Amino acid sequence: MTSAPRANDPEAISEAQRYIWNSTAASYPSVTAKAGEPLLDAAGVGEGTLVLDVACGPGLVAAAAAARGALVTGLDFAEEMVEEARRQHPSIKFRVGDAAALPFDDEAYDALMIGFGIFLMAEPQKVLEEANRVLKPGGRVAFTVWDTPETLTAFSIVFGTVGAHIQPEPAEPPPLLGKADEGLLTGVMTEAGFVDATFERLPLVWELPSGDALFEAFRSFPNMEGASDDVLKAIRSDILSKAAEYERDGRLHLPMPAILVSGVRP
Ligand SMILES: C[S@@+](CC[C@H](N)C(=O)[O-])C[C@H]1O[C@@H](n2cnc3c(N)ncnc32)[C@H](O)[C@@H]1O
Questions:
Q1: 30, 116, 126, 206: residue to mutate for ligand 1 pocket, most atoms within 8 A of CB
Q2: Could you tell me if residue 54 is inside a domain?
Q3: Fewest CB atoms less than 10 Å from the CB: which of 58, 129, 152, 183?
């Protein structure tokens, strides 16, 4: 069986991630929104399901679950994200916590989702073991990750452009970052004790009104932090010209394929 590769310095990865997501909580990009419904379907979420949304960010998947009549709790380790989720969805319970040490009892939930979170985590194998622990027998887990980096138009445009202007400090990437391999992702599920693992590609397309909206969506990410006005101007101009290639009927249509993986706790 395949386990996730291990990080050398899990604490450094978690600290860097917490910093990124605390910085972006108030202007979180809508790029993940279209994956919410397939994620809920794969996790079997419906009326009355007791569901945990792990790495909930500002709570968009949790809100979609609540709209189905599920009884949902959201959890994220970035305090600002949890604040933002509470502000946007005051009727849903959100709490601060680490996915690798879930602050919940054994067998507490029917379903658990991790939307675009597991590939950012320092200890993905431990996270899925925790998911297994808090699910009831027969409970379902589902997670989404991005497809391979070269297929992700918005990230290639933005992060490619930023990287050409600002060289980041080298840092250890989270173990599953950029990994879209079926054997690896279903193997990690199986290794954590899940059965009936599925793997599906979601051909998502992110629509935005303009290249400026694309630049603004990532403006508060720490990789642009500290850039001079001139550098920001150059980044914006390069993003706008690259994004123009994806304009149709006055809107951008940016292919952002994702992968949906699910499993069942026996
Ligand atoms: C890309 S956002 C996804 C948010 C939301 N699930 C969605 O689909 O839009 C990733 C989130 O994972 C959270 N995260 C990363 N590692 C985590 C961990 N170990 N425990 C809890 N949350 C974590 C981040 O704080 C961030 O809010």
A1: 116
A2: yes
A3: 183
